[in-house]
Amino acid sequence: MIQQVDDFRAEAAEIHQLLGRLRDDEWSLGTQFKAWTIDDIVRHLHMGDTMALASASDPAQFAALRADIQAERDKGLSRIEETRQRLNGLGGPALLRRWHETAERLCDALAAKPADARLKWAGPDMGVRMFTTARQMETWSHAQAIYDVLGLERPAPSPRLRNIAEIGVRTFGWAYRNRGLPVPAVMPSVRLDTPFGETWEWKASESHAVEGDAVAFCQVVTQTRNVADTSLSVRGEAARHWMSIVQCFAGQPETPPAPGTRYRSRKASPMNAISPFRIAVDDDVLEDLRTRLRRTRWPEAELVSDWSQGIPLQWVQEVCRYWAEAYDWRKREALLNRFPQFTTHIDGLDIHFVHARSPHAGAMPLLITHGWPGSIVEFHKVIEPLVDPVKHGGNAADAFHVICPSLPGFGFSSKPTTTGWGVDRIARAWTVLMARLGYARYGAQGGDWGSAVTTAIGGLDAAHCAGIHITLAMSTRPNVVGEPTPEEARALRGIKHYADWDSGYSKQQATRPQTVGYGLTDSPAGQVAWILEKFWAWTDCDGHTENILGRDELLDNVMLYWVTATAASSARLYWESLGPDKRTVHKVGVPTGVAVFPKEIVTPVRRWMEGNFTNIQHWSEMPKGGHFAAFEQPALFIDDVRKFFRTLR
Predict the structure, then answer these.
(1) What are phi and psi of 169, to 5 degrees?
(2) Angle formed by the axes of helices 567-577 and 513-522, nearest 10°
(3) What span, in angstroms and rounded, lies between the C-alpha atoms of 507 and 521?
(4) I need a labelling partner for 327 at 20 to 30 A (CA). Which of 26, 194, 232, 561 fits?
(5) What is the pLDDT of residue 250?
(6) Catalytic residue among 448, 461, 556, 640
(7) Does 442 participate in catalysis according to the annotation?
(8) Which residue, 511, 528, 510, is CA-closest to 519?
């Protein structure tokens, strides 16, 4: 019995040492375990060991604690939501210290138990040896998820790995019963090769077998690897089915199986898997970018002293020199990676999204959607204050869980390979995403194409969408009766200016997106000019974009188009959505909030909107700001979003 306790203690010590080296910003990184952050994993392990300690030392306390947790779960809280609420305000190093103390007390309590003792847990009572090894297995598997999200190589395994492999084999029947499935009559054989030169065998059916690397087997049975991402040989239907059951949270395979792998099916991985994601651009992509920038063939300068012929040569050259010689993508990449990011497969595409969960109980899920030529970068100044208002001078009652997806064909989401990905299809995909994340009620916000998608969500998912907040009314048309009001006159001026001077890009992308894609995908100077012209035209910047937005953050946004080569795929959203019969005009009856920023392309007019938006409950005229509201005026944006959704909580 002492050996099992020592193994568990050593497993906990290894992960304590790893976590002790984390930077403050790394605790909030998302992992593959149901979109939990590293903080969440430690909370989960701490609560598990707290429960185990109660079981080992005070069964009455264990029963009371389990009943209390179940009561919270019966209220609709998920397991991690209940744990967050129970450990509210405890995270990072303080949480790690608390867990370390609990784990040590648990090890002492288990070591004092006789070998034949039985302990209560979620299911039938367990022998103390199995109980201790189960705690080791959970610690080992969660450590693997943390190593993965940090991109670190795990240290060489110790012989205690045998405990993980053995419990993976011994819980064959439990894996089925736990999922409400009948236990197969055939138990596959297992033969594993270890890094220590040993071979471990559990013999059963010779025609159904799992063979190969012991570490890989342990990763599969602890749901941190898809079997197709390993070199394991899986022979026979019973073995294939078992592996598909135990890997259920592992996600889609990321790499082809090694040559000779007999089990190659991807069907074992659930299509609704949520996988952690970190931005990691290859060095050769960055070097290619610098080479292209330095070799740019420039046109002659414009023949006017203003922007009437387009973005001035001098500024584009200045930005490109900075991009090639001074811009530090690795630093900017790390800043973007402070947000927990994930991918999930919806309607044939892998959708990339930020999912930043609030530490505050009662936080409201908020889905925010960008447009063109924007990206998730637009929201980099508002996500954290929305998620944790207390840290930013606000009230915990205004907290949000923020979900910020990249549009299909933009950034790190997949590029559609068939036509049909217009606004409504994206809106439906977003409703699937919110349901998959477990949010039965949520708010939605958007600008540019994001406002169109958000409007469609309000029309299509009123059963779950509590309300929408938009900054642009793309679905409305002028409806002037008599002399225009001042608001109508302002909007009409915007419409005329857009038609006369600003809409060429839209016509091109709506009619020939493929054609424009060649030049923009090949030339970083062309890509940056195409995008930055719109940031000059559509921001409230007093004549120069860098009066309101920093050069680094402007280039961060451009980088999400360049490194993903999404110039053409992002432009196709116009082809899919503009023109006769390409979009549905939705009647939106959910509560609607509108923020009117004075330098918006076309400022919303309430009377024009009321025919389609039948429940406008909030209308605000902003003192400054333009098309990229969250990017330009984060404080005004945050305040207005809070005010509107405060009424819907």
Answers:
(1) -75, -45
(2) 160
(3) 19
(4) 26
(5) 52
(6) 448
(7) no
(8) 528
73-98, pLDDT tens digit by residue?
776 666 777 777 777 767 888 889 89
- What pLDDT sits at residue 257? 36
> What CA–CA distance (Å, rounded) separates 213 from 218?
9
Residue 460: closest CA among 561, 546, 367: 367
Residue 142: per-residue pLDDT: 86
- pLDDT on residue 265: 29
Q: Distance between CA atoms of 273 and 250, rounded to whole angstroms? A: 8
Catalytic residue among 241, 360, 586, 627: 627
132-158 pLDDT, tens digit per residue, is 888 888 888 888 888 877 777 778 788
Residue 538 vs residues 312, 411, 448, 625: alpha-carbon distances, Å: 16, 21, 11, 9
On the question of pLDDT at 170 being above 50, the answer is yes
Residue 381, burial from CB neighbour count under 10 angstroms (0-12, 13-18, 19+): middle
Active site residue 574: yes
Residue type, 482: G
Name the residue among 143, 109, 142 with its Cα closest to residue 128: 109
Residue that the structure tokens 């608390």 belong to? 98
SS3 210: strand
Question: Can you give the pTM of this predicted structure?
Answer: 0.64
Residue 258 has pLDDT above 50, yes or no: no
- Of the residues 540, 574, 586, 618, only one is catalytic, namely 574
Cα 624 to Cα 637: distance, rounded to the nearest angstrom: 11
Q: Is 448 one of the catalytic residues?
A: yes
Report the C-alpha gap between 144 and 164 in whole angstroms.
12
